[in-house]
Write a structure and sequence with these properties.
heterodimer, A: about 80 residues, alpha+beta, TTHA1013/TTHA0281-like, elongated, B: two-stranded antiparallel sheet, 3 strands
């Protein structure tokens, strides 16, 4: 199984995942994940490791918590399992 | 292009890129310097320390030495202004080094830090004037208030400098908004200053553990028990209130429930990340949390001191569960500590040892902070599996618990363990250790608390509450009718009757 390392961010009201040759965005996270699944469908099964980019959050907020979220989107052989 | 330091990819991510880690490096670095005293070399005694002074005495014959002096005996020959300059230069350099690693604009940071430092010291010095601090009570057969022949006095004890720092900070944040926004934004980082001070407090905890180990361990354990209350009672009640009474959506309600009931802005961000909410939700909630935390800091210490002066440890623990954000909680705990000591001295003529009420407040809050990572991890799994029903398509790694772990807590416990370990393994060194680290646990720690008060005030703009509408209303109601009463009841259950040891004559 292959893996992609992507950076997740939220800019101008849209979620964006980029890195490793991928760059997709959508207003909803589920929509973004559907785009990612389509983008990566040629190399299934694949894990897309998404790490949130804190630099998109206001600077003053960083002092309270330095981390938003990381997760892995698993794209299975026969499309998304959800 | 994404900065490499703004995402977490390995366990060591952020060690040089977050304020949380930098509070550990600065705090433990200075603590390590103080330990050199065990070899007979004082590396921290240059720190300036304000002295109690009286207005007419100062104006009749001015001398800098009446206002402040070097804290260490080895530096007694230094001019007070030299100690003050060393204090400024060393702390400005340490924090500027951190600011550089945090990718802040170092020039702007140093300018802002200089203003905050100046305001802090002005408040600290002014707050040591005897008309503000001296308490009219006989201690060990002496009444220093009478001896000083004061015609009046506010009798605020060591709480007076904190109150002045808070007022000065709030004045900056609310009456000089433009200046604060332009010049202080980079340096107004109360969480960084307070977390560094909390690492220093590990030294105090070490000394407290030596003096009264049973009491100290009791505080640690009951703090852990109180954590369960915070998560198991507060969260569901506030979530239900947000959903059923205020009609907020599930994601907003969950973020609000964490922000209001667990640990403020940190919890709001952790929860929002865990449930994959849009970042605008925790940004809004955090703004409200920060402002309400300041209101709690202003109201609760005075309220508890006035109406519940005979329950010091209960009051401290209740603060730890009620006041959100580490900065506001530690600041409120420090203020409560000083106000309660002064009030008890006034009422009974007995002086409690300083720091125990603050420790009760802090140890409760620290446990709540530590478990936010576990809570966010559990919430993430529940949300993905049960709410979003994403099955195996979306997975969250257990490493998230570590990423969310408050690293300054490591510094706090390392300082405690090193102090306690040295004094226990080599009892002959205990006295030297106490003398050598007294500057860190005393004036350095107090200065960072003062800096926190000023920085918090400077970044609190009460006018931001306008337009916050239902969120602010829910926050206010939840604090008054849910969090504060339950927190007090739980604190009373665990700590009733506990009194701090009396201070040595």
């Amino acid at each position: 199984m292959t893996a992609r390392q992507l950076v997740l961010s939220f800019e101008h009201g849209r979620w964006r995942a980029c890195g490793d040759g991928v760059d997709v965005s959508h207003s909803e996270l589920r929509g973004l994940e559907a785009l990612l699944e389509a983008e990566l469908s040629g190399e299934v099964p694949v894990d897309a490791h998404l790490a949130f980019d804190m630099s998109g959050l206001p600077r003053w907020l960083h002092q309270y918590h330095g981390h938003y979220c990381n997760y892995t989107l698993h794209v299975a052989r026969r499309g998304p399992r959800a | 292009m994404t900065p490499a330091g703004s995402t977490n990819r390995s366990w060591s991510s952020g060690m040089l890129r977050t304020e949380d880690w930098w509070s550990v490096w600065v705090g433990l670095g200075i603590f390590a310097a103080s330990l050199v005293s065990l070899a007979g070399i004082d590396l921290v005694g240059w720190m300036a320390r304000p002295r109690p002074w009286e207005w007419t005495d100062l104006t009749s014959a001015f001398a800098w030495g009446k206002l402040f002096a070097p804290a260490g005996a080895s530096y007694a020959g230094w001019h007070p202004l030299a100690a003050f300059a060393a204090t400024y230069l060393i702390f400005a350099a340490l924090f500027a080094l951190g600011a550089r690693s945090l990718q802040l604009h170092v020039g702007r940071f140093v300018k802002g830090f200089t203003v905050l430092f100046a305001v802090t010291w002005a408040a600290w010095i002014a707050g040591n004037e005897l008309h503000l601090t001296m308490v009219d009570a006989a201690v060990d057969g002496r009444n220093r208030y009478s001896e000083a022949a004061l015609s009046w006095g506010l009798q605020l004890g060591e709480g007076a400098p904190y109150l002045l720092a808070l007022l000065a900070g709030l004045a900056l944040g609310n009456f000089a908004k433009g200046f604060a926004a332009r010049h202080l934004g980079d340096a107004a980082r109360p969480e960084w200053y307070i977390k560094t001070a909390i690492v220093f407090l590990g030294v105090n905890l070490g000394a407290q553990t030596l003096d009264a180990s049973g009491f100290a361990f009791n505080l640690v354990l009951t703090g852990a028990a109180a954590t369960f209350v915070a998560y198991l009672f507060f969260w569901p009640i506030v979530y239900a209130l947000a959903r059923r009474v205020f009609g907020f959506k599930r994601d907003v309600s969950a973020v609000l429930a964490s922000g209001i009931s667990v640990c403020g802005a940190s919890a709001a961000i952790a929860t929002a990340g865990a449930i994959r909410a849009k970042p605008i939700i925790p940004v809004t909630v955090s703004m409200i949390v920060v402002i309400f935390a300041m209101l709690e800091l202003i109201v609760l210490p005075g309220l508890y001191t006035a109406f519940l002066p005979d329950q010091p440890i209960v009051n401290g623990a209740a603060l730890g569960m009620t006041v959100k954000t580490d900065g506001a909680d530690a600041a409120a705990g420090a203020l409560l500590d000083e106000l309660m000591i002064a009030r008890n001295l006034q009422l009974t003529g007995e002086r409690w040892e300083a720091g125990w009420i603050l420790s009760a407040s802090l140890l409760t809050k620290i446990w709540i902070d530590v478990f936010i990572g576990v809570w966010a991890f559990v919430l993430a799994i529940v949300w993905i599996r049960k709410v979003e029903k994403r099955g195996d398509a979306v997975r969250v790694g257990a490493m998230e618990i570590w990423f969310r772990f408050p690293k300054f807590v490591l510094g706090y416990f390392v300082a405690w363990a090193v102090y306690f370990g040295i004094a226990t393994v080599w009892p002959a060194l205990a006295e030297t250790l106490e003398r050598g680290t007294a500057v860190v646990a005393g004036p350095m720690r107090t200065m960072l608390f003062m800096l926190t008060f000023v920085a918090m005030g400077a970044m609190t703009d009460f006018s931001k509450l306008k337009g916050a509408g239902k969120i602010a209303l829910l926050y206010g109601l939840a604090i008054v009718i849910v969090i504060a009463p339950i927190a007090y009841a739980v604190a009373y259950l665990f700590h009733r009757g506990l009194m701090p040891p009396l201070a040595a004559p």
